[in-house]
Amino acid sequence: MTLSRIGRRPINKKRVDLEKLVKETYELLSEAERKDRKVDFTVKSCPPVSSDPQLLKIVLSNLLSNALKFTRKCKKAEIEFGCKIKDKKTIFYVKDNGIGFDMKYADKLFAPFQRLHKEEEYEGSGIGLATVQRIIRRHGGEIRAESLPGSGSTFYFTL
Q: Scanning 41, 48, 56, 74, which has the fewest C-beta atoms within 10 Å of its C-beta?
């Protein structure tokens, strides 16, 4: 239902302080996930963006939640949000040191109900990244992932 609604909802773009939104989103969703864990969460300096803040919060919530979920077995989880400039475009990223995945399955990441890990190991419906991709595309951007099994994942997106 959420995925369907995201496609029909009008976009209400505003100037968004991304660093602030990332920190707020992380604090809201991570309290239970951080309990009894060491999580090194870093937010690098990024420029403000023109986007729909509610939709962008859904993107960040999904990406950060996944980073927390897939670093659960790390002694010290490391999660970083930042950006870099390439070809005059700002590319944002969420990087973690979690379990990672084999890139040969990367095409399944953004498809609804596709999962790369067993439900017994990691909860989830397989709809989060499909929702993220839809929101990013509605903002005229792209999203992609890089990963290695056992070496974490990085999700890059533009708006």
A: 48
